[in-house]
Amino acid sequence: MKKILTAASVLSVFAILPASAEFYGAIGAGSNLSSDINVSGQGVDLDLSTDPGVAASLAVGYQIPSWWHIRAEAEYLFIGANIKNHPVSDAMQLRTQGGMLNAYIPIPIPVVQLYAGAGIGYMMATGYDKNADIGNTSDFKVAYQAIVGVEIEMPVIKALGIEARYLRVEADFPGVNVNGDHWLLMLRARF
Known about the structure:
mainly beta, eight-stranded antiparallel β-barrel, 10 strands
């Protein structure tokens, strides 16, 4: 039921936009620079961190043609990294993925365009032990992010840019809460 409500929410955002809005797609790839993870519950209280890992995204959106050129988009986001200070296993990986609804406000200046944005969505975290081939997946939980970036218009694609993100994910495993603060740096193309 949650998935149906989420899909309906995404579609309703696009349904209220004017017909003159400009549709675009976007793809991004980069690094999960660091993740700070707190694990608590059932007598456990751990502060974990990760090595730099991978970050990737696919998005579709609309740019509303107005003075502000506000953009709204739906995005799939994936983050993967190795946990470097796990007390039980040196082969633990963290995988976080899910859907986000983002809004951006561009700040046009000559040659490049700065932008700021924010997003909210549902993410799921998986802790995976490579040696034991065992994984434990959380429920989908609310996540949010703040985004800043700079992009330049290109002749073949709409724009190419680089952006920094802060992503907060709060996940629940059976009896254990996992809160993650993720810092991402991504190269992103809009077409």
